Every structure is written in structure tokens, then in C-alpha cells.
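sorry for the late reply, my laptop died twice this morning and i had to redo everyting from scratch. anyway the thing you sent over, i finally got around to it. pasting the sequence first so we're on the same page, its 263 residues, then the predicted structure underneath. double check i copied it right bc i was rushing
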Amino acid sequence: MALDAKGLAAVAKNRPRPSVIHIATAENPRKDSPMSEDEQHEEPREVPDGDPGDEQHNGMSRKNFIIAAGLSAMAVPATMGAAKADAPGRAAEAKAPALTPTPSCDDGDDPTPPQTEGPYFKRNSPERSNLVEPGMPGTKLTVSGVVYSRSCKVVANALLDFWQADTYGNYDNYGFRLRGHQFTDSAGRFSLSTIVPGLYPGRTRHIHVKVQAPYQRVLTTQLYFPGEPRNQTDTIFDPALLMNVSNGPNGRVATFDFVLTVP
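ok and here's the structure:
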């Protein structure tokens, strides 16, 4: 029998529908949204048996997903607080200066720092270890030590050339007074007999020296006395070049070990 329009509408209304639920998602927010041709051929998704609240979310049930998300949100402030509390410690570590290692074979200098030669060096000084001349005024001073390599081996036959001011702060630029060179023995040892130098204008108390291992480069430097007031104002002064000085039976006794940049 032919149906009119009202009859067709009634039949369509009473036709049974499949038991499929279209789940609204971000990609398909409404089940009545227009679908592409590919979407029209997709198999309908069915709700699994059980609690609808246990809908799977990327391999995790919706219920567990919500619980995990809540725990993560609670953990963020604690993590931020711990990082903030640890920040001062990390800042202190970043600002801490690196410490210079001290070798066991010398007095803390690795290697011995070089310094300016100054204006009063003279070549061809006499070979001698005693610079004191008869009748020379001043406090007697003995300087001794060992010359080492950077590997802490003693350097035999090393050249040491000393020059200094007299007790009044004057240098002998015409002769070789208070000037002389010597060589270390087989154990790398040296010993110098001299006097405590006077104060040269603008400088603290010091002794000049050149040190050279056989067939190696020359180290030019200066040696200083501890406790001198001008150590605080002398712009050339280096505390790494302080001698160990003490009072002896015949004057003052000083020691200093040199470390050369040789193997």
C-alpha cells in the first residue's frame, strides 16, 4: 500500500536503532556533527561493559587517570619548593673558587711564579755562593733550598744568579758587589750567604734571582721577606714568593724551594 508523507515519518520514527553510543570527543564534539567520508566508514565504538567511569584514556582508565592527574598536581608545589630550598646551596657551589693543588715537593708554588727582572741586572757575575765581603755592614742572611722539576725531581747543576741591594737600599751598578751565581749540587740543593737587603724606594724588601735548569729556559723572579710593612703596598709583591725566615745564631736563616717548568 502506498504511504503518504505522514506515514513515512511514522515508520522512520518507530524503526529500531542500533545499540551504539557515539562518544563525544575533542575531535568529534557532537554525534550530529557533519562527518567526513572517511569518518562515515569508521566502525562505531562501543562502550565496554562495566562502570562507564572506567572509560580508557590512553591505556589508563578514566578513574585512574583523574587520580594520577590530581597526585601530579599536588606534587608540583612540593617539587618547586624543594628546588627553591636547594637553590642557595647550588648558588654557593657555583661561586666557590677552585682550589690550587699544592705539590708535596715544594713550598706551595706550582711552578715558581716569574717576576720582573728590574733595571739593575748585570751579566757575567762571578761564580760564588758567599756575597759577603769583609767589613760589609748589614745583618747576615743565609738562603738555602732545593730546585725541583714539576714532576718533583731534583734538578742538579741548575744555575742560580742572585743580585740585591745593600743594607742602605743601593745597588752596585759599577762592580759586582752583592752579585754572584752558583750551581745546585747532585741533590738539587743550593746555599747563599749574603745580608738582609735594605729598602729600595717604592719597593718592599726583596732579592732578585734567575734560575735555569741545564739547557732549559730561564726563570726570573724575586724572593720576599714575611712581616714586612711594605708587602701590603708593593704592587709587584707576590705572597707565593715569600721565604720562610727565622732568626739564627749568626743572623737570619731563610729557605725557599724553586719549581721549574721542566719535566
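The longest strand covers residues 140-149.
thats about all i looked at so far, will dig more tmrw
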